[in-house]
Amino acid sequence: MIRTLLAAALLVLAAAPFAHAGDRPGDFDFYVLSLSWSPTYCRQEDRPDARQCGRNGPPGFVVHGLWPQRERGWPSHCHTDTPYVPRSLLNSVRDLFPNPGLAASEWRKHGACTGLGPADYFALVRKARGLVTIPDNLDGEDDPSSQGTEAIETAFAQANPGLKADMIGVSCRDGALSEVRICMDRDLHFRTCREIDRRACHARRLSVPEN
Known about the structure:
By secondary structure, this protein is an alpha+beta fold. It is built from eight helices and six strands, in the order αβααβαααβαββαβ.
């Protein structure tokens, strides 16, 4: 009987969201705005979300999330008294996130660690996204064919005064552009982020799939 109870308890713990020891809401240094190149996701996922990848899905970049980050590492799954986001709030950010499930997941994993409530967190996501201009050749309307990570960083820097290459990390997956991650301080000003830049993809040529 005791063994059965212990096994059941371990299963519950395994199913619970993992929280790093010491992860406290508000304990971070800066933000990372992650913009996902939707065509790569839609082509490479085994079971892509139909709302994102259907005929009327969003072109080009979509918001993956706004992540609190430390100079080394990041907090996740911080304790919150509001683990669930109201449906009305999820619906209000459908122009940012490709589906409400992603928005809800981002709140639980990252948003709760900001120290903000859900409404304020998603308002901050909207503000951060509004501060970034997507380069014309990466707006999802034209065929960008292929580019190197340096060219992508340069394009973003030229489109956004004050943004420099060491404030951006380009992520790739199987030789294709996956995400562009832009670092901002807690007041949403662009800032350097050595770890994000160091962990980024550094390819001379990436495919940039069309929608």
